[in-house]
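Hey, I'm writing a tutorial for new members on how sequence and structure tokens pair up, and I'd like a real worked example in the thread rather than a made-up one. If someone can provide the structure for the chain below, I'll link this post from the tutorial.
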Amino acid sequence: MMIQQITQRLQEVNTLLATCKQDSITFEQAMQLSLFYKDFNDTNRIVTEATAMFHDDARQLMDISSSLLSEAERFLSLDITGLQSVDFEGIFEEHLKPFETKYEEAKGISTGLWHEYSAMSNRLDYLPLDSEDYKSLDPVCDAKKTEYDTAHAQTDLLYKEWQQERDRTFCVYCFKPMFLSVLAERLKGISESIIGDIRRMKEDAHE
């Protein structure tokens, strides 16, 4: 369940921010921060899960909410001004550059092979089928076509890898440190509401 994962993930974020050099974070660290926001910014889902758990296991919900409140307050007590100067778009683009470079190199090779194959194929079109030139060039042309097909398949694969990595990591490009602060405030408010509701329920039960 989402509500059970969130406290541990926020604890990891807090530990990262407390120990890393905030103004020069790595791609992996940027990914961890942006993924936390991406995975948990839909707080409506957390409220829905908490409502269901409230009826099934209020004690466990109380424990989870208390831990979440503690981590949210810890986050809000951290000084994250160093993060403001981080260029998350730049970190994203730097990470993707090797994927793009590999694709562009493969595309260059593939395009070159296509031109070589096309030139041979066009020449064959003008040669008599029973000529010596045709007979010697035809297998060379076939081999070049096979070489191109292999290179083209590799180019397609590298393009797919580049796009998949782009999609997987795009949350870093979109990320802003203030997103985390806003989310932590919301999580704090949700935790406090849940704790308050459970306490009221217990008081009502004792009356």
